[in-house]
Write a structure and sequence with these properties.
The protein has 139 residues and is an all-alpha fold. The longest helix has 21 residues. The protein is flat, with a radius of gyration of 25 Å. The chain starts with a helix and ends in an 8-residue tail after the last helix.
Length: 139
């Protein structure tokens, strides 16, 4: 009896990942290109500049996550409807925040992110200048 109970519990435990898979159908334009090559090029460029909300290290063009597929479909539908890529990007930034774009705009919140690397590089050069002076040369 306990052997059958163990087998039953093992079978239920191993079937968990199967139930975790999405049962939703794939979005229509998630993995299909637009018929118009110009529109597809615009969509592809935009998709490569948007961060996947699930993977975080990949663009929505490269991610296989369901959320990325939905976002690719959304971008393609809006491009096909005639919206400009910048309008779509602005809508996504309004909805998900600046973090979604790999190229955040320079404004009061993001300017330290742009200036800090330059300041650190300048400080490093200034410190290295004193370290690598020629011996016997006083300045």
């Amino acid at each position: 009896m306990s052997r059958w109970l163990a087998i039953l519990l093992l079978a239920v435990g191993l079937s968990g990942p199967v139930h975790a898979q999405s049962r939703m159908p794939e979005a229509e334009w998630a993995n299909r290109q637009l018929p118009d090559e110009t529109q597809e090029a615009e969509a592809k460029e935009l998709m490569e500049s948007l961060r996947c909300l699930v993977c975080q290290g990949q663009s929505i063009a490269d991610s296989d996550a369901d959320m990325a597929q939905d976002m690719r479909a959304l971008v393609r539908r809006r491009i096909a409807a005639g919206e400009e890529p910048e309008e779509i990007r602005n809508w996504l930034v309004d909805r998900y925040g600046r973090w979604i774009t790999y190229d955040p705009p320079i404004d009061s919140v993001t300017w330290p992110l742009w200036l800090l690397p330059i300041a650190l590089l300048g400080a490093g050069i200034w410190l290295a200048r004193g370290r690598f002076r020629l011996p016997g040369k006083d300045s």
